[in-house]
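ESCALATION

Customer reports they have been waiting on this structure for their group meeting. Please prioritize. Original submission:
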Amino acid sequence: MVNGSQSQPRLVDTPSGPVMYTLTRKQVKNLNLRLGRGNEIMVSIPLRCPVKQADRFVQEKSGWIMDALRRREERQVEPLPPVSREECVRRLSEALNRVYPLVEPLGVAFPSLKLRALKSQWGNCHWAQGYITLNTALARCPEELRDYVALHELVHFLHHGHGPGFYARMDALMPDWRQRRKVLKRYGGALED
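Update from on-call: job pushed to the front of the queue and completed.
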């Protein structure tokens, strides 16, 4: 391997069992490990680094690798069915309409709703501009999760950060929000679709 464009599969015995990974040499200073789609394990190493050092690195990180793969597997749920753009708009608008009455008495003006395919967030609040953005993937999640995210973003009109006041308001308005958030984490794969 002369340049970083070539990769090779490697199999190494670790304390956690055999691990197959893809080794790539790159213009990097350190050994790097990451999990790719489909649970692929990828290691990049500096151009002059011995392959045996990469194997040792994987052996040392095998506990972390197995834990990360286990956590990822626990988060996986049934594939979510696709929805049309019209259905997406309908479902997310309904979620906003369902939870808005909880914040209306607190002086929150009804926000504009924007929909986008976000890569790492279920939604975000642009309180100064008066709108919230909800991830289109959220339309594929169960109703109670759509409601949780919509309320989360609405509460940001009252508390811009995630401080104690924000969490106290969420507790008051949706006492089971922590359980909903926990369930929503299992749908994280939908963010990548």
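Sent to customer with the following note: The beta strands are 7-14, 17-26, 32-35, 41-46, 112-116, 123-126, 131-135.
Escalation resolved.
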